[in-house]
Every structure is written in C-alpha cells, then in structure tokens.
Amino acid sequence: MDFYLGLIQIIGVHTLLGLSAYCVLQTGQVSLAQAGFFAIGAYVAGMLTVLAGWPIMPALVVAAIVAGAMACAVGFPALRVRGLMLVVATIAFGEAVRLFFFNFTYQLERGGFRIGPHGGEGFRQIRYFPEHGWSTLEVMLFIWVVVVLVMAAIWWMDRSRAGAVLRAVGEDEVAAQSSGINVTAVKVFAMTVGGVIAGIGGGLFAHYTTHIEHVQFGVVLATFAVAYPILGGLSSVFGTLLAVIFVQGFLIEGLRFMGDWRNLLFGALIVLAMNVRPRGLIDAATIAAIRRIVRGKEHAGA
Amino acid sequence: MLKGIAALAALGTLLAFSVAAGAQERTVKITGFGAKSGVVRVFGVNSEAALRAAAEQINNAGGVTLGDGSKAKITVEFLDDRCNAEEGISVVRRIASTDAFVAVGPTCSNVAESLFGILQKKVGDASDSGLQFPIIADVAAKGGLAKISEWSFRNVPSEFEMYKSLFAWLKTQHPDLKTLWGGVEKDFAHSNATFGVMKAQAEANGLQVLGQSEWLLADTTFSTQVREMKRANPEIVAISAHPFTSCGVLKEMERQGVKPKLLVGLTSSSSIETLQGCAKQAEGIIIPTSFAPVTPEAVKAAEQVAKFGGSADLHSAAAYEVMFILKDVIETQKIMAKPETVAADRAKMREGLAALKETPGLLGKIGRTADREAIKPYLYVHAKDGSWQVLYKPSS
Amino acid sequence: MDLLDVIDGVQSVADGVLFGATYALLGIGFTLIFGVMHKINLAFAAASVGAAYASLLILAGVRAPPALVFVAAAACGGGIGALVYLVGFRFIPLANPLATLMSTVGILLLIDEIIVHTTQGVPLNYPALFSDVIIRAGPFSLRGDLMFVFALGCVCMALLTALLYCTRLGLATRAVSQQPVAAELCGISITNVNVLTFVITGVVGGLAGAMIGAAIGILSPLLSLPLTIKGLIVTVIGGLGSIPGAVIAGLLVGGLENLFQFLRGVSERDLYVMLLLFVFLVFRPRGLSARPPGHA
To answer: What ipTM does the predicted assembly reach?
Structure first.
C-alpha cells in the first residue's frame, strides 16, 4: 500500500511542477526556468523547517512567496524575448539558479552535527515528516490537498476572464494588445503564478525526498516540467494531471516489468504521443467531445 | 469401477508427492536495485550479475537454510532506479510492499542519501514514522551514509583507510618525492569528498600539496587546469575524478607534456572504463581498491560474474559478498521467509546485520563498525599494459 | 598578476576560442534548422554524438583506415538527420511548434538510451586527428587539431552559404522557409526540401560530433545534454538563422568560458556564462548578426 501512496505523492508533486509550466505556457511562453523556481522553493522550505524549526505550512507559504518574487523579477527581462530565445534565456536562468545552489553553503551547529545546505554535497536530513510521525498516507493527503487547491484555483482562473486574457495573449499577442490587454502585465502575472506553484511543489519535494542537491534541479527536470502540460494538452488542467500519471505512473513504474526496454520505450512513446496527438492528450477537440457526451446524457435524462 | 478407484489413487499419490516435493522447493527472493540507465548503467549491470552469480553459488551448494529447517533457493530480481532519488524511494517502497525482508543497493550516493533519510532513524522510536526496512548498499560510496539510519548498512570500502595506508606506503617507497598536485571533480559528491581525504592524507605523510585543479563532471577541456599543474611542476599528481574526466585530464597532460613521477587515482576509476577510454595515458596510475583477482575466491567470483554478463570490480565484488552476508544472517537469525512473518523477518535481518562483527570477503575477512560500515581489506593496483595489475598487497 | 599569469590567461582564452570551433559547428546545424523550419531541433547535439558513436561501430566492423571514421560519422549524421525529420517533424502539423519541441525531446532521450544500451554507458576512445600537432608561437602553444576543426568550420560555413545562395536547392530552401504555401504553389516539394535540409544539417552535425570526439579524445553519453545547451546558447547569441553568426558566437562562448574559469574558478564559471547570456538576450535579443526584421 505504501508503494502506491508513495507513487501518488510523486504524481502530486510532479503535477504541481507541470501546473507551474502550464500557467506560463498558456501565454505562449515556453519557460524552462520552472526547475529553478522549484529549487528555490525546495531550499527555502527545507532551511525553514530544518534550520529555523518552522512547521511545514508556514515554510511552504514563504517558499512559495520567495519563488514567486523571483519569478516576477525574471518575468520582466524575459518579456523582451520570444520563441527559441526565451527557451534559451529560461534555460540560462534555471542553470544560474542551480549553479547558485551548487556554491551555496549555510550550515549551523546543532547537537554536535552541522546541518544545512553544503554546496555540492546538497542539503541532507530534511526529515520533518518522519520526525513528526507523519505516515505515508498523511503525507500523500497533505500533498494532494495542496494539489487539488491549486488545480481548483487554476481551473477557476481558466474559466474566468483572467483565463481568457491569458489565452488571448498566448494565441495572438498583437491582437490581444490591440484589444487593450496589457501584454506585459499578463505575461509577468503568468510567470509569477508559475513561480508560486513551483515554489510550493519544490518545498514538498524537499520534504519527501529528505535530501536535495543541485544536480536534481537541472535541465532534465525543467524539460519534464514543460513536457507534462505539452503532453497533456494546454486546454485543461486535467491534461497535465493525465500526462503526469502517464509518465510517472505508466512509463516509469508501470513499464518496470519490461526491464531494460523501459528506458528505450520512454523516448519512443513520447515521440509517438506527439505524432499521434500533437495538441496533447486532452486537447480542445476532446473537451468538446466530452461536453457533448455530458450534455447528451443530460438531455437524455431530462 | 476398480479402474476408476485405481486412477484416483494414482492421482492422489501423485498429488501427495508433488505437494511434498513442493514443500521442499521453497524460494527466497532477494531484490537488488541500482542504476541501469545513463552513464552509470555499467554499475547496475555488474551488480546484478554479481548478485546472480553469488545466488547461483549458494543454490548449487544446497541453498539457504530457513528458520524452520527447510532449505530454500535464492532468486534474484534487480530493479532500475535510474540514479534518481525519487525513483529510488519508489523502488524501495515497491520492494517493501512485497514479502521481501531486505534490499541490496543503491548504486548512486545521492539516491542513498534520500533513501536512508526516509528510513526510521532509531529502531523502536515510535514517534518516527520512517520506513522500517533494512537496506544494505553495495556501491554507494560517499562517506558516512550508513549512520543516517539504524536500518541502513553498507559493504563499501573505507576510502579514508585506503588512502591513509596508500600515502604512507608511497612515502616508504618513494621518500624522495615531496610535492603533490591535486585534481578534483567538484560537482560530484563522491569525488569531491574523496579528494578531501586524499589531500589530508598526503599532508599527513609529509607531502607538500602545491595546489589543486578543479573541473566539473561533464567538462571537455582541461587546458587551463593542466597548465596550472604544469607551472607547479609537481612530482605526484592525485586525481579524484571518474573515468570520463580523468581520461580527459590525462590526455591533456600528455598533450602539454606534463609527466609526474607518480599518478594516484580515485577508487571508482580502477575499472574497465578508464582502460577503455585512455589505457595509454593512464599507464602507471596507482589506485587503492578492495578487489582484485588475487585470492582463489576472488578469481572464482570474477569468473562467475563474467558468466552472468558483468565484470568483477570493487563495486560488483561488494554485491557478491553481500549475498553471502545475507545468507549467513538468514541462517543465524532463523528467518522464516513466510508472508506472515515479514515484519519479524525484517527486524531479525536488521539485528543480524547490526550484530555482525566480521563477514567473509573475497580478499579476506571484512570487519564491521558500529556505524554499520565495512572495513575491507584492500590492495593497490596500477594500470599496466592495458589492464589493472596488483602493485602491492598490504599485509595487515 | 604577473607576466606569467597574463600569459596563462591569454593562453586559456586562446584555448577556449579554439575549442569553441566545435561549438561553432554545432551552432551551424542548430541555426540552419531554425532558420529553415523555424522549429527547434533539440535532438541535434544528441544525434551528432550518436553519429560519432555509429561511426565507431562501423569502424569496428569494417576494416578501414582510422581517418575514415570521420567520413562515416558525417554519413551516419545525414542518415540520422533524415530519421529525425521523419519521426519528429514529418507527421506533425506545422501549427504545433510545441509538439515538435517535445518530439525532439523524445528523440533526444531515445538516442541517449540507445547509446547507453549499446555501450553500457562506458566512455569510448575516439581516434584523434592531428592530435600531436602543436603550433608554438613564443610562450603560447595552439592545438593543431582544434585549428583544423576551425578550418573545417569555415569550410562548412562557406559551402553552406554557397549552397543556400547559389544553388537551386538553396533557393528552394529559402523559399520554403519564407513562404511555404507559395513555394508549394511554385511546384517545390516541401517534404523533399525539408528532408534534404535535415540530411545536410545532419552531415554537419555528424562531422561536429566526430570533431568533438576527436578533440576530447573520448566519447561519452554525458556529452549530449551539455552540448545541446551550448549549441542553443551559441545559436541564440549568433542570431537565429545566421551561419556566420553561429561561428563567431561559438568561438566567443568558448573563449569566455575559459576566461571566467581562469578568473573565478570552475564552480562559478557556468554561472557567469549563464548570467552573461541572460543579459545579452535582454539587450540584444536578435543576436550578433541581427538581420533587421522584414528582410529576406
């Protein structure tokens, strides 16, 4: 049972990572910096619970705020570039954050041991959950309460005017600007929201792996972050969730019985998925079809 | 009618025999896990081969005796964690959700850090909800990991001891050599930590450390670093890096004409990788290791591991030894290996591993520390004519 | 800082600039794909390293002089390039840039895993070219093999520019990149042009992979990701679609890398490269050889 609970935990945190990229992708920006904000959230939350003895909730909130602030700061210069250049600029930023933590050491003496982030060796013993007796189930529920709240917030935003504005900017910036939308503000807003979500995800990540180091927050994680919303489709938050379940649940854990072939299938299946469903697993057409079915049932029932 | 009864009787007897025979055919599954993907794939492949080879040896000798007196054959499964901490945790949870009472791994030290961190820290601490499952590591070599939890154990060599002894021996062999220059892979925890050991031991033995060159795991050009080295003109060069960058540095040294009198390398680099990448440039490099085919057991193990598609080096040899350690603990602790005794079996395995003072190793007896680490016998090898040959075997 | 340090510094930068020739070759490939198809092929560096590995495989099977390994790498590169187009671009409608981005990521992962599975992840020795040629100029020494790579890069640049501006294929390529619909109306087969472009860039990539292998002396799966990032950085600094820009940017990045390393050590080197890139993009987003918008 623990195994499934652990897997659901992983799916939860990766969904947060995917959702942080989802927000930014909606405005047409491909941001490979989400892993950087994830890292910031992880280190800040870890330092607060381990070095300052804070409880987990306030630590996560502060982590989210710091990551969001950083995202806001990055958003402004990032606006000046588009397309491939934005991809590269965000890779550069993400790598800069990772390298910062590679060089970052801040240790305190506690009970004869030195604790805290130690440069290349990483930050070990972030054991808030086990030390406070949280069972795997409790951690999983905690993570998923957060995930559900975030998903609900984005779902609500999607259906509100804010969502329409985001999509307008994503579809056609010139048209959006001509309609009087402040494109700058929208893009920075999307970046900031993405940063906040990534910060929360990072904080949770640090606590369920108990050890974080700079290597984990590199380009590979950043690519996964954008892969989830692209694979899942940008029309709905559930697309991202589905993509995370597909990658983490099916590709990584489900295909384990294939042994060595699993890793080869990983890349091959992503290529196949993009060829077969270029707009994502759940795209606008799928949503329309689901709506038709639901409405059809309603009519039939009435 | 009689024919029918005779047929039924025959069937019944057959069934009875098969049940009886089945009762003798018990199996115990030992699951290993490690990296079978990426640049470290070779470690996982070797560990798996070593575990399977050792299991075959044990099974051929009759198998392992369980707590109820029955004999069981060992089967091995190996799971890939892709050197990723989240996946490593997931893999161990997967193993822990079966009837397994122990797991062997991981390959990567960063996975071990996270993994040992989710285990219960102190046995019997009811307020700690960490996982209660014993894990014994065969490859993850970064210093001080086993003390993270009382459920984590390791069978890896102590680099502190090996380099301490190596530099002392080098001093006796080459008393005229006075200066040393270091080279270190900064962004890999293992090589970074080991360099600290190398440097400290060099200084403790009267060598003057003129300085150090640094590079990163995936670096491809070393001209600046080697030039610093050349300027310092050291007599000994100690490189704490894995085969890819070690070869890169050695090739650059050849290019710039830097020829120190002695070369010392990182334990992990005493494998075929280095020879495949730069046998010519690595000629003469001295590395302390906890495995070489110098004893009859070691030679036999090397042959067996090769049979299963791996190669025996200090890492896979540790996995081979671990299988025999597990067999001993299963027998002394009378582990029952039944679905209803899982929790008890895990506790017994942990106690058994913790109580060990000495285990059999391929090069000799291995001591065990209170910190759940191993004190392994070691020797020094050097690269000569495209293979690793024994340079010196310390007697103690 | 005495004279020795200054000499070392200059030498470091020179070494870096020379090694940057390898980045330049990669940048040429990346920028050509982007310039023609306006799509990012993230699998390019991995395909180049894969071509180098494939050339080793061929050489292991066929008895041939070691120099032939470079030709084999170029040929394999072309083949892999065509495959990448087929699998990653051919069947995905043009209006989905994100899908092709992700499909090339999938191809990158696939190529890496194939390399790891065939070689167990172990580094392989790569035949060196002119590795013992060292040109000495006073207190400085320049690596002959890297100068050869630089010369090769210049030749590639000249050939590709000639191809683009002096041949019918080049004309067709430029037509497809500017106005695909109009080009098709003129009877130009988009698929053929795209396949050929990928094959040509694949050949350049294979050559780049072989040169990088020869310059380092060893091939390892560790190379794909850092080379992808370097290639992208070089492409962007050079200006998307500009071949001379990619060459200059490659040399620039190589030199600056070593300069930062010389001044601040290896732990901070990449941090400064990344910050520099970020700042560069903010102030000169169109790159070094920025063609004013609206021009051909």
So the answer is: 0.90
Query: Which residue is closest to A222 within chain C, CA to CA?
Result: C105
Asked if omega into C293 is within 30° of 0 (cis), the reply is: no
Residue C237 lies inside a defined structural domain of this protein = yes
CB distance A6–B89 less than 8 Å?
A: yes
Predicted confidence (pLDDT) per residue in B214-226, tens digit: 999 888 888 889 9
Confidence of residue B13 (pLDDT cuts 50, 70, 90): low
* Chain-chain contact of C285 with A85 (C-beta, under 8 angstroms): yes
**Amino acid of residue A284:** A
Judge: B127–A122 Cβ closer than 8 Å, yes or no. no
Cβ separation of A10 and B90 shorter than 8 Å? yes
Which class is domain B159-289? alpha beta
**Average pLDDT estimate for B75-96:** 93
Cβ B101 vs Cβ B349: under 8 Å: yes
By DSSP bridging, strand B379-384 and strand B387-392 are antiparallel
Contact B73, B342 (CB under 8 A): no
If you search the block for the tokens 């010519």, which residue do you land on?
B280
> How far apart are the C-alpha atoms of B28 and B72, rounded to whole Å?
6
From A136, A210, A252, residue closest to B87, measured CB to CB: A252
d(CA A63, CA B22): 58
Measured distance CA(B339)–CA(A88) in Å, rounded: 54
Looking at residue B22, what is its pLDDT?
47
Q: What is the pLDDT of residues B132-187, one digit of tens each?
A: 999 999 999 888 889 899 999 999 998 888 999 999 999 999 999 999 999 999 88
Contact B41 C121 (CB under 8 A): yes
Q: What is the DSSP string of C214-259?
A: HHHSEE-GGGHHHHHHHHHHHHHHH-TT-HHHHHHHHHHHHHHHHH
Closest partner CB to C218 (pick from B38, B39, B244): B244
Cα–Cα dist A47/B342, whole Å = 37
Mean of pLDDT values over C77-96: 88
Rounded to the nearest angstrom, the minimum Cα separation between C133 and chain A is: 36
Give the number of domains in chain C: 1
Q: Where in chain B is the domain with CATH 3.40.50.2300?
A: 27-157+294-377, 159-289
- Rounded to an integer, the average pLDDT of B252-257 is 89
User: Using alpha carbons only, what angle is made at residue A183 by residues A178 and A189, rounded to the nearest 5 degrees?
Assistant: 150
Please report all neighbours of C, defined by 3+ CB atom pairs within 8 A: A, B
CA distance C208 to B230: 30
Across the interface, whether the CB atoms of C282 and A81 are under 8 A apart is answered: yes
The model carries a pTM of 0.90
Give residue B68's pLDDT band: very low, low, confident or very high (50, 70, 90): confident
Q: How far is B227 from chain C (nearest CA, A)?
A: 8
Domain B27-157+294-377 in this protein, CATH class:
alpha beta
At C296, the pLDDT band (50, 70, 90 cuts) reads very low
Express each pLDDT in B100-109 by its tens digit.
999 998 999 9
Q: Which residues of A touch C100 (CB under 8 A)?
A: 274
Mean pLDDT of A11-30: 93
**Nearest chain B Cα distance for residue A163, angstroms:** 33
Q: Give residue C48's domain range.
A: 18-283
Which subunits sit against A, judged by 3+ Cβ pairs under 8 A? B, C
Indicate whether B83 pLDDT > 80.
yes
**Taking CB atoms and an 8 Å cut-off, how many pairs form between chains B and C?**
100
A201-205, B113-117, B188-192, range with the lowest pLDDT: B188-192
Mean pLDDT to the nearest integer, B316-324: 94
Of A95, A223, A269, which is closest to C274 when you measure between CB atoms?
Answer: A95
Taking a C-beta distance cutoff of 8 angstroms, is the pair B237, B263 a contact? Answer: yes
C107 → closest Cβ in A220, A231, A271: A271
For position C82, which CATH number holds? 1.10.3470
